[in-house]
Amino acid sequence: MKKSIGLLEFKSIAKGIEATDHMLKSANVELVLSSPLCPGKYITILCGDVGAVKNAVKTGEHIGGNFIIDSYVIANVHEDIFPALTATTNIERISSLGIIETMSAITSIMAGDIALKAANVQLLEIRVARGLGGKGFILLTGEIGAVKSAVKTCEHKLEETGDIISTVVIASPSADLIPKLL
């Protein structure tokens, strides 16, 4: 079972690839995502047991050195983060829509985890910085009150970092909009 997630963002694609290779060799972790991002950044997302993920992230930070933009470990990540990262969630009914736009890919994953733990919501997707100028966003759904609560909790918990750009809650999104978002 995937219990924790490690996230690293690099300002060098080459250094990101090198560090990712070292991380995978240093600990028993699974690679979730390893990809270039706009504008010329690189992100690596790993999962596994907490100790292994922490060890791999530490290795990545060492190899990445001055090329590390940010790194973070979420020790007890919500299990629904993984399908949201790969856009493989299966949700039949979308009664309301919450959108949280962030300054970085890492913050969007943190926001998704916070939202899932804050209220009875489902993540539709966590979009990490591909074609977004380094930004990220999450799409979540559930009953309107739960979505509002999850969004407010994210705003509150991440306000000090200044990494949330904008949040929106739509009570009854148009049926024509939803397929275009996913």
What does this protein structure show overall?
- With 182 residues, the chain is an alpha+beta fold.
- It has two domains: 4-74, Alpha-Beta Plaits (2-Layer Sandwich); 81-181, 2-Layer Sandwich (Alpha-Beta Plaits), CATH 3.30.70.
- The chain has six helices and eight strands, in the order E-H-E-E-H-E-H-E-H-E-E-H-E-H.
- The longest helix has 15 residues, at 50-64.
- The chain is elongated, with a radius of gyration of 16 Å.
- The mean pLDDT is 89.
- Helix-strand pattern, N to C? EHEEHEHEHEEHEH
Give the total of beta strands.
Answer: 8
Q: Report the CATH topology name of the largest domain.
A: Alpha-Beta Plaits
**CATH superfamily name of the largest domain?**
BMC (bacterial microcompartment) domain
Helix content: 25-40%
As a percent range, the share of strand residues is 25-35%
- Gyration radius over CA: 16 Å
Q: Estimate the global geometry from the Cα principal axes.
A: elongated
How far the N terminus sits from the C terminus, by CA atoms, comes to 27 Å
The domain count comes to 2
Arithmetic mean pLDDT: 89
Largest beta sheet: what is the strand line-up?
A: 2-3-1-4
Structural class: alpha+beta
Instruction: Give the CATH class of the largest domain.
Output: Alpha Beta
* CATH-defined architecture of the largest domain: 2-Layer Sandwich
Q: How does the major sheet shape up?
A: 4 strands, antiparallel
